[in-house]
């Protein structure tokens, strides 16, 4: 088991990673002093460990279509009916969307109640559950309404991952692949638990330096500007990690077009992403101008088009990238049918058993 501390000025917690760590939930709840718990789970009841206190179990559904303010409102209504107080605890059990929705509900209810995350997908373990960002979608774009609300603990039980289909493993690998370009180094030779630990360690260090996106935390959005646009443009047929993988390849090409990196580093983006069995081409269908328009709604954009891009001193936030350059890079990227981009068992795709060893 790995234990990664995340130390902030007024809040600290541990991220536990390893097989069976969900069994520590009751001890975590006891340490918090909670007398009651609400567990919001997108997984079967038998997947949810005992909290050790009186518990209300609420069903949830993973998926972008339920990542809305109405879902948050419905959860808060259940909290009221149960009599949840600020001295109690909320627990999420599911993938990234469940983690985000439950985290936002915990942040808003009574202006904040403790929350513990039990992420059950690779994507949630390496990304959504750590760092305190919570958000839901609007019709105009992803994650446009949210709050910063740090969890009291994160329990990344790697036993959950053995149940994942190949495509869901790849979804999480999209976030791991982009870590190569923001300071984690080459993680490709590591086992999946080691990759999770390295990714979380990187994220924890960045969040400790910048909890609220005023500086270095922007690095975690590498590949995400185009990634979020692709999710919206395909009506979420492309999953988050798949879209971020394509966005990472695009970020390398854009940095090259702007003269920030050389051709060898541009090719490295393609090679690293492809080596994980992830898509590297744009999907057929969404027009270049549609993607540019969606990218203008990105949360990082203060003026014009904004991207996190590689450069001579590493990745950094770059504002006011010329529209014409962005459009040209998009036009030059290869395109493929959606079925070809997300086909399970693609060359280089890990099997479930191999990924966990």
What characteristic shape results from the CA principal axes?
A: globular
Q: Which sheet architecture does the biggest sheet show?
A: 7 strands, mixed
Specify Rg, calculated over alpha carbons.
20 Å
Strand tally: 13
Describe the structure.
The structure is a single chain. This protein has 357 residues and is of the alpha/beta class. It contains 13 helices and 13 strands. The strands form 4 sheets. Strands 1-2-9-6-5-3-4 form a 7-stranded mixed β-sheet, sandwiched between helices. A two-stranded antiparallel ribbon has the order 7-8. Helix 3 links the parallel strand 5 and strand 6. Helix 3 crosses helix 4 and helix 7 crosses helix 10. The chain is globular, with a radius of gyration of 20 Å. The C terminus is likely disordered.
What's this entry about, in short?
The protein is α/β, with parallel strands linked by helices and 357 residues long. It has helices at 25-32, 69-82, 96-108, 122-128, 166-179, 192-209, 224-233, 240-257, 263-275, 288-295, 323-332, 338-341, 352-355; strands at residues 2-7, 12-18, 36-41, 54-59, 89-94, 115-119, 133-138, 141-148, 153-157, 282-283, 305-309, 316-321, 335-336.
